[in-house]
Amino acid sequence: MYDYHMHTSFSADSTASMEEMIESAIKKGFKEIAITDHIDYDYPDLQIDFSLDFENYHNALEKNAQKYKNQIRVVKGLEMGIQKHILNECMAAANEYPYDFIIASVHAAEKKDLDTGAYFENKSPYQSYIDYYTYVYDCLKEFKDYSVTGHLSLIDRYKKYISEPVAYNVYSDIVEEIFKLIINDGKGIELNASCYRYNTEELMPSIEMLKLYKELSGEIITVGSDAHSPEYIGYKFDYIYDLLSNIGFKYIATFNNMKVDFVKL
Ligand SMILES: [Zn+2]
Ligand SMILES: [Zn+2]
Question: Averaged over 53-79, what is the pLDDT?
Fold first, then answer.
């Protein structure tokens, strides 16, 4: 199994050491994991500091990849929080160290945080969705230094800020444009399984979106637990691999030096 999204104490929202995460993955029988700590420039919620000590992070990745190389492959990754007004910084950071794999994630839109609910203030549910996916599209039109887009339907996690559900067909056209852009650029998506940690059932992207991606000939897909502590590494991956194969995916993607490879499901 291949878990392509997890955090360590280099991220503000995790206290697990990199060694702890790697050793737990070895115990669980993983062949390969990607460590993908956060960098979120100009994150609107000032209560949390999503900056990254790039040099020490890179050294730790190199050191641990070497240390554990006979037991597991440690992919040198990054979760880049992208926002329209900081894409130049994101591009510079993506190219400063030799990463294997970069997840591009939109955690904030229009300079407002989704997690605190600031983004949803004074917006109808309909407008929240349309504007969110349009924002993701606009970012990905400019930003190309990534491997996969992170948790594309993240907005679904924030139902508590939305007064009524928004039907998928309201925004599926924009999602289709996003997928076409991703596929055309030779990039991919991740299937993010952190819903189980949040006790919700919503995989990100949703099953409907995964089907659309497949229909559009999207091939590149990674699976990530988004674990911030060892117990969630690879959580429910058996179920997820089955689900992907039922949708028609034959391979999952792995990355080395920003180049994609495929493993049979
Ligand atoms: Zn994220
Ligand atoms: Zn993450």
Answer: 98
The alpha carbon of 195 and the centre of ligand 2 are apart by a number of angstroms equal to 12
The answer to whether the pTM exceeds 0.85 is yes
Distance (angstroms) between ligand 2 centre and the Cα of 64 equals 20
The pocket of ion ligand 1, defined by CB under 5 A, consists of 105, 150
Q: Judge whether 39 and 79 are in contact, CB under 8 Å.
A: yes
CA of 109 to the centre of ligand 1 (A): 13
pLDDT on residue 115: 93
Q: What domains appear along the chain, each with residue ranges and CATH number? A: 2-264 (3.20.20.140)
Ligand 2 centre to CA of 77 (Å) is 11
Average pLDDT rounded to a whole number, residues 141-146: 98
Distance CA 245, CA 238 (A): 11
d(CA 168, CA 113): 22
β-strands 188-192, 73-81 pairing:
unpaired
Q: In Å, how far are 138, 213, 241 from 177, measured between CA atoms?
A: 11, 10, 26
Quick one: 112 exposed, middle or buried, by C-beta within 10 A (0-12, 13-18, 19+)? Answer: middle
| Residue 29 CA, ligand 2 centroid: distance in Å | 22
